Amino acid sequence: MAASKKKWGKLAKLSLVMLLAGTVVLSGCSSDSGSSTNTSSGSGDSGSDDGKQVTLKVEIFDRGNTPKPYTITDSYLTRYIQDNFGTPNNIKMEFVPVPRSEEIKKLNVLMASGGNVPDIVFTYDTPTFNRYAEQGGLTELTDLINEHGPNLKEFLDEDAMSYGQYMGKQFAVPGKRAFLGKYSSFIRTDWLEKLGMDVPQTTDELYEVLKAFKEKDPGETGGKVIPFGMTIEPAQYDPLIWSFIQPTTDEQKYTQLQKLGANDYPTLLPGFKDALQFFNKLYNEGLISRDFSLDEDKKQLTQDVTNGLTGFLTEDYPNLYYADGTYDTLLKNQPDAKLEPIDPFTNSEGKRAKPEYAPNGMYIMIPKTSSHAVEAIKYLNWMADPDNLLALQNGVEGENYEMVDGIPVMKTDAPQDVIDRLYNSGDIAIIANGNFVGDEAQNREKLTTNFPEKFQDLHRKAVEIAATDTFKPVNFDRPIEAEAKYGTNLQAKYEEMIVKTAMAKPEDFEKVFEATMKDYMVSGGQAILDERTKVYQEMQSE
Predict the structure, then answer these.
(1) 478 vs 249, 257, 271, CA distance in Å?
(2) Is-contact 256 249, C-beta < 8 A?
(3) CA–CA separation, 388 and 395 (whole Å)
(4) Which residue of 93, 221, 352, 364 lies most exposed, with the fewest beta carbons within 10 A?
(5) How far is CA 328 from the centre of its chain?
(6) Mean pLDDT by 10 residues, the chain (542 residues)
(7) Nearest-10 crossing angle of helices 103-111, 126-134
(8) H-type alpha helices, 62-157
(9) How far does CA 200 lie from the centroid of its chain?
(10) Cα 541 from chain centroid?
């Protein structure tokens, strides 16, 4: 053991030195499955086997918002977990804080520290997960889950589980999203009523409505009307662009999509150029926000909507209906305003195609150095029990919530100390991103109950739109290195392409499109295309 400790000590020091130099070297030295230290609790160190208490260390995000008298490591929920999982299994739970704002940096330090790393760590960042798996720093989980994770297997379907795989092996437990929908569109229906126009059902009908908003100014803005509120954020331009993309084969999706950050972009798919040309038409006719390229944080868009200047926009489906949010503020300024969800963008097949989120919210990992992998999976399996997940996410029935038609509805009159029990429930119940209370319909309804009652019908409609005609992101079982290498720069190039082609004079569109696409491709787009094509061919031959 002494020799082993010296070996890991040297590796940890070397890892930290290389981390500071910009390279993370993980303490685990092998990615092979079947190692006895990773598929058992460790010799003579199992609460369930020989009566000795073990300590299970679990990462926890510290957002600096812990209410008194709690601390980030000692709260209602950490005590609940100790009392209901830890103590009955003779396990001492220890929560290891990681500042949310420094998640990846601090996690890298922990992973490089050898024996000091928690038994359960997690990240939202796909490249970070891929790097840990590639460098052999993670425990392979297939056998552990099969033996100790029946609840996990039921909770996480095969699609979700595939997002925790690297080169066909299971190296992470995905935190599952309760709802995968992203976008809805919204329109001032009171403006439509003034104009005697119906809610647009197609892209062409929307164009006619936008022109009428511009020409007739039903909001009486004094010429300040913005028919289509736009920014340089994906939620504002994605639905429009995807509506122009032509039907594609699986091969086209795998090879021609460009994944930049967390999003798939249709940069090379047929129809993308047509989308940008329509964008150019809207801009040159004064139908979208003139300075959209400068609105990177949506502040101007929000101001324009709340001041009653904007007739139509697309957005992440829940964003307008929060208490004291965009619609609430608009109603304070214009009590008769009606801003309602619609789904007007149609593609060549008549579908309202739009992307959805990947089913994994995060990657939950067990480092290779952990000697408590069994306990770690048992903990996640305990969390996946519906009764336990209900308690972690919703608290105590009758105090935090009431059951209404099978939905735990939070009590609005609960005292503050009762509300504070759940202040970080999302960071505790790590296997779930969003509330899971039953089937998909119940999960959607639970989403809606979190919004002010006066907006709940509108929210239900926005949720339905966000889930209509969606398509899944493409999932490779290995990283595309070129995406990690060029992604950040290409994201800027992609936005530059949208801006420059939109603002070009109509007669110059073709020239500007060709120039910006060429710049995009030589800046890494071609490298991503080549690598995705190669990996797709390899996957087909396996």
Answers:
(1) 21, 16, 28
(2) no
(3) 10
(4) 221
(5) 26
(6) 37 37 40 36 44 94 96 98 98 96 90 86 91 94 97 93 93 96 98 98 97 98 97 96 96 96 93 98 98 95 98 97 96 98 97 94 95 98 97 98 96 96 97 93 94 96 97 90 93 97 98 98 98 95 82
(7) 10
(8) 76-81, 103-111, 126-134, 142-148, 150-155
(9) 30
(10) 31
